[in-house]
């Protein structure tokens, strides 16, 4: 013992260990599709799970994109992210799913001009059937799934139907992008920082049929917390221009960039997983597309965007009073939602046969 340095003796006596041995185990995160180019650097830098959480990335894309995928892997290695403990880049879905704790499903067949909804559904049933089966068989227990690819709610429901062993609460879709858009637009209107706004709600689907709701939103001011309705004092703006803007901003970005919202969608995906895993702040909810249990009169079995709070890796639907506008919108949408559920179930039944 006498030959040891003072520091070594302190370490042994106090039972201290090295920083390396205290490091958390890496979380394995699978990302599919081309938007992953915007998303994976954020994950590797700690934006999604925190600055002390190592990650191991599993990247999956279609065979024609194999060379590009390998280039992404090389760039990730070039960047020397301290939290990144390894990268798997593959076009094999089973290899990509092995041991993953979080799966972010960005790849899918998008609806294009002139394409019938049933044709899009049929193609995505084929894609998500394969991925659901691989996740169910090879992913880690309690794997959390976020579907980003549009139509996100529908694709999440397809994946759920083909992976019955994965708990329904573990399959979600992204409406945090719309939630963040709503926060940002309110902040712009009031000329304040977006971090001072909270508790907007996105009801429904990640599409132009959604209902962005600012009726419960509040703003932190020097005089305390105040409602957005009180500060804006313009019901027509809140129930017309605000809703239309949030519903149509995705299309406006495509028109301007000639590409979809990759950067903001990647940031929103990080926010979604961050809050789901690490929890929402006290008194704050977020919007997530989750499995309906019948809350708010939404047909059970749908993947639908609700206000939720998160704690210890679990989400719960928040309790919010509903205005006349919200109630009327839900009443008008209910039969359409049921028809969509029946169509999806019919298509998945055909593929099960």
Automatic annotation (TrEMBL):
Domain Lactate/malate dehydrogenase N-terminal, chain residue ranges per copy: 29-171
Reaction catalysed by this enzyme: (S)-malate + NAD(+) = oxaloacetate + NADH + H(+)
The protein's superkingdom reads: Eukaryota
Record GO biological process: malate metabolic process; tricarboxylic acid cycle
> What are the alphabetically sorted keywords of the record?
NAD, Oxidoreductase, Tricarboxylic acid cycle
Q: What class of enzyme is it?
A: oxidoreductase
User: What EC number(s) does its UniProt record assign?
Assistant: 1.1.1.37
**Catalytic residues in the record:** 206
Annotated Gene3D superfamilies: Lactate dehydrogenase/glycoside hydrolase, family 4, C-terminal, NAD(P)-binding Rossmann-like Domain
Which protein, by its recorded name, is this? Malate dehydrogenase
List the source organism: Musa balbisiana (Banana)
Organism lineage string: Eukaryota, Viridiplantae, Streptophyta, Embryophyta, Tracheophyta
């Amino acid at each position: 013992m006498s030959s040891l340095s003072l520091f070594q003796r302190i370490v042994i006596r106090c039972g201290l260990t090295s920083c390396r041995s205290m490091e958390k185990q890496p979380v394995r995160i699978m990302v599919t599709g081309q938007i992953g180019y915007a998303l994976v650097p954020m994950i590797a830098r700690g934006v999604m799970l925190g600055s002390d959480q190592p990650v191991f990335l599993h990247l999956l894309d279609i065979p024609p994109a194999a060379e590009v995928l390998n280039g992404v892997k090389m760039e990730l290695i070039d960047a020397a992210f301290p939290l990144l403990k390894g990268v798997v880049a593959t076009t094999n879905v089973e290899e990509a799913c092995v041991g993953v704790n979080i799966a972010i499903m960005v790849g899918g067949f998008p609806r294009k001009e002139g394409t019938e909804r049933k044709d899009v559904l049929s193609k995505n049933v084929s894609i998500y059937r394969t991925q659901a089966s691989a996740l169910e068989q090879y992913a880690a227990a309690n794997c959390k799934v976020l579907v980003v690819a549009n139509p996100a709610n529908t694709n999440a429901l397809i994946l759920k139907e083909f992976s019955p062993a994965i708990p329904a609460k573990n399959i979600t879709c992204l409406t945090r992008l719309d939630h963040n858009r709503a926060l940002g637009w309110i902040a712009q209107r009031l000329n304040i920082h977006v971090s001072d706004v909270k508790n907007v709600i996105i009801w429904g689907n990640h599409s132009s049929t959604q209902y962005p709701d600012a009726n419960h939103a509040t703003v932190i001011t020097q005089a305390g917390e105040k409602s957005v309705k009180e500060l804006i004092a313009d019901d027509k703006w809140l129930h017309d221009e605000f809703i239309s803007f949030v519903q149509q901003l995705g299309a406006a970005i495509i028109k301007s960039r000639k590409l979809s919202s990759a950067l903001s969608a990647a940031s929103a995906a990080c926010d979604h997983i961050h809050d789901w895993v690490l929890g929402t702040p006290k008194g704050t909810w977020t919007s997530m597309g989750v499995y309906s249990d019948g809350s708010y009169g939404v047909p059970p079995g749908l993947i639908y965007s609700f206000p939720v709070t998160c704690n210890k890796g679990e989400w719960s639907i928040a309790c919010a009073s509903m205005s006349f506008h919200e109630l009327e919108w839900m009443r008008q949408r209910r039969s359409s939602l049921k028809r969509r559920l029946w169509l999806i179930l019919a298509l998945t039944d055909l593929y099960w046969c």
